[in-house]
Amino acid sequence: MKSNTNGTLRISAKAKSVAAVMTVIVAILAAAFSVSVCSSLPVGAHILSAGTPPVTTLEITNGTMNLTAAQNQTTPDDDDNVSGIWYSLDVWNTTSNAWDIGDWTNYTAAGGVNVTLPQGTVRINYNATDIGQENEITNTTIEEIDTVAPTASAAITSGTAASAGWYKSNVTVLISTTNDTIVAGYHRNSSGLNSTSYKIGTGSTVTTIIHNETERLAGVNMTVSAQGVNNVTYWSSDNATNKVAKNILVKIDSVAPTLTLPTDGSTLTALWFNWTGADASSGIAKYTVSIDGAAAVNNTNGSIKLTGGSHNVTVTAIDVAGNSVSKSVTVTATAPAGGIDMMLIIIIIVVIVVVIAVVAVMMMKKGKKGAVAEEAPAAEEKS
Fold first, then answer.
1. Is-above-0.90 flag for pTM?
2. 55-145: CATH, from 2.40.50, 2.60.40, 1.20.1050, 2.40.30
3. Can you tell me the distance from the alpha carbon of 191 to that of 179, in angstroms, rounded to the nearest whole number?
4. Which residue from 117, 11, 8 is spatially nearest to 59, judged by alpha carbons?
5. 86 beta partners
6. Starting at the edge strand that comes first in sequence, how are the strands of the sheet with 324-333 ordered?
7. Tens digit of pLDDT for each residue in 293-349?
8. Which SS3 state, helix, strand or coil, does residue 358 take?
9. What does 307-356 look like in DSSP terms, one character per residue?
């Protein structure tokens, strides 16, 4: 570099060449550094550029996530148009007490549709980039997702069992619930159990028990005592207000049937001994009847035929649940007027009618044969 006669500096051609070479080297190094750093970043993670990046909005509705991104420029150009939205979902694992890290996913490439979030404590990471590679810093939010109702079940734990699913005593029902979501073998948080409710029959009375953890583990015991078929409706609610109603049938019959016999010492004007029985809950299954101390026989129609004379009759009514009642009376059975059994009279009449009909047929056949025999000689005389 030399001075001219006016005192100004002159740059030689050689110096200019050196400066140009240095400029090229610096540009190459800068480009190489940029490519190296960017290629080492995971998909979805971005370096902030010098411009203004897009802004992403997160919306969560009923356990689904929706992401939208918009330009953040006062006077945007084409390079400011959003080119992609990225997200990853991490779920807190209550077994390992650590985050299960999710992969970064291109939300835009998936069609920009709502994403169903996993149950439990979820960490949502998301950002967007524009065409000019101006990248939004990653946003992070933690949400409690619980769209699944608690699991409830009921079982009869005590009571005197009878036949056909009936019980002959008060019954205890245990309602058990859980609200822990299990995914791929891992237990994940939920909103927590809030209460268990139940009602018996169609009435409006609802019993609700607010839970702490000890009560949840022990379950809810309830007593059913009403006779008949009891429809017990029950449900558990979590802190996210999810619930599903279920029911269990409890059948109780501890009351014996009623039984009505003819009055003790009465006289029957026919040979049939009739009685009635009823049971309001499980119903009459059968009767047994013993006459004059003989072995009891089964009976289902409430009637039995006696012979004439005095008899001691014992009837037992048994309901479906196995409850029974027995009563005994002494009655005198008499035949209808004349001392003849009406059924016997009917049988005799039928026999007489049949005999008369047979005799009439035989006589008709005999008459036809006689007429034929008389006609034969008359024909021979004419010939």
1. no
2. 2.60.40
3. 8
4. 117
5. 106, 127
6. 267-268, 324-333, 309-319, 284-291, 297-299
7. 999 999 999 999 999 999 999 999 999 999 999 999 999 999 765 555 566 778 889
8. helix
9. -SEEEEEEEEEEETTS-EEEEEEEEEE--SGGG--HHHHHHHHHHHHHHH
